[in-house]
Design goal:
This protein has 315 residues and is α/β, with parallel strands linked by helices. Helix 1 links the parallel strand 1 and strand 2. It folds into two domains: 199 residues, NAD(P)-binding Rossmann-like Domain (Rossmann fold); 78 residues, Alpha-Beta Complex (UDP-galactose 4-epimerase, domain 1). The protein has nine helices and 13 strands. It binds nicotinamide-adenine-dinucleotide (NAD). Nicotinamide-adenine-dinucleotide binds next to helix 1, strand 2, helix 3 and strand 5. The site of nicotinamide-adenine-dinucleotide has 30 residues, from helix 1, strand 2, helix 3 and strand 5.
């Protein structure tokens, strides 16, 4: 007897597939809905034999078609790496807007809980540091990254409107840079880019002078945070991320400690690239008793295993 039926849009993606695993392990049935535009079937292949797991290949922006009861809708569908959303600008706007409305409508129809995967990008290039949930952001509405940032801002507004208008039981999380073994090696995210470059014997690409900061959260910590937001959180946004801040240059040094010295090639900083990004997670700590546990070294070692696999470097 399953406890709940959970719909996860973007379930074949990096974070979505880890959520599928977690909810199945916790005794739920899971329907993953994904159009595979940036995800991979291989992320959930190992789950396909599980009778409580279904993968439906579908574009969430074209509507959702789900029979039977649903207790929880987790809306994770969206290109997420800058490389992907810059290549898919209109699809990103559409899934953040129409796709989010479709997922909210499903939750409303089924009387289900709804959780939106929003992002630290809604803070833009922040003028407040670290960023609290109350910070309203410094976002360009016309720069190349706006397709992602503004789509997520719309998605948050839509989620709050469903809560206010229909009493839908909603949650919003703002995810800060998360990494783990299922990230694709070439989608432009810095952790996997450095690991893949080191494994291929290529120089590290650093954009700008490498002094811009990021905080890196291991995916298992994020998944635990998501479960706690669902079970114990309220309807206002929660920052979920690792508050420990590193410069990109420090990250490069950590990867070199694992894989040996590499050359560095510097490139110009892309438009609207934030200089600093660090979550204030006091709200999650206080309400959910949550904070990340996995240290960067351990997370990098686990991620390295996945990247070796993706690059075909293990038999
Ligand atoms: N990983 C991070 O660091 C991070 C940070 C902030 C926010 N997020 C958010 O978390 C979610 C998952 O990100 P991820 O890192 O796993 O990225 P991902 O690209 O691995 O996963 C996104 C998934 O959504 C699917 N998808 C995209 N558009 C779709 C559509 N129209 N219909 C159906 N499926 C669609 C993709 O095929 C993919 O499987 C995204 O909403 C992203 O904005 C992630």
């Amino acid at each position: 007897m399953v406890k709940d039926r959970v719909v996860i849009t973007g379930g074949a993606g990096f974070v979505g597939s880890s959520l599928c695993e977690r909810f199945l392990a916790d005794g739920h049935a899971v329907l993953a809905v994904d159009n595979l535009c940036t995800g991979r079937t291989s992320n959930v292949e190992h789950l396909l034999q599980n009778p409580n797991f279904t993968l439906q290949i579908r574009d969430v922006s074209e509507g959702l078609d789900v029979d039977g009861p649903v207790g929880t809708v987790l809306h994770f569908a969206s290109p997420a790496s800058p490389f992907d959303y810059l290549a898919l600008p209109l699809e990103t706007l559409k899934v953040g807007s129409v796709g989010t409305l479709n997922a909210l409508e499903l939750a409303k129809m089924k009387g289900a809980r709804f959780l939106l995967a929003s992002t630290s990008e809604i803070y833009g290039d922040p003028l407040e540091h670290p960023q609290r949930e109350s910070y309203l952001g410094n976002v360009s509405s016309i720069g190349p990254r706006s397709v992602y940032d503004e789509a997520k801002r719309f998605a948050e507004a839509a989620t709050m409107a469903y809560r206010r208008s229909f009493g839908t039981n909603t949650r919003i999380i703002r995810i800060f840079n998360t990494y783990g073994p299922r990230l694709k090696p070439d989608d432009g995210r810095v952790v996997t880019a450095f690991l893949a470059q080191a494994l291929r014997g290529q120089p590290f690409s650093i954009f700008g002078d490498g002094q811009q900061t990021r905080s890196f959260c291991y995916v298992d910590d994020l998944v635990e945070g998501i479960v706690r937001v669902l079970d114990r959180g309220d309807g206002m946004p929660y920052n979920l991320g690792n508050p420990h801040e590193f410069t990109i240059m420090e990250l490069a040094e950590r990867v070199q400690e694992l894989l040996g010295p590499q050359r560095i090639v510097y490139h110009p900083l892309p438009a609207d690239d934030p200089k600093q990004r660090q979550p204030d997670i006091s709200r999650a700590k206080r309400d959910l008793d949550w904070e990340p546990k996995v240290q960067l070294r351990e997370g990098l070692e686990k991620t390295l295993v996945g990247i070796r696999h993706s690059l075909g470097l293990v038999p």
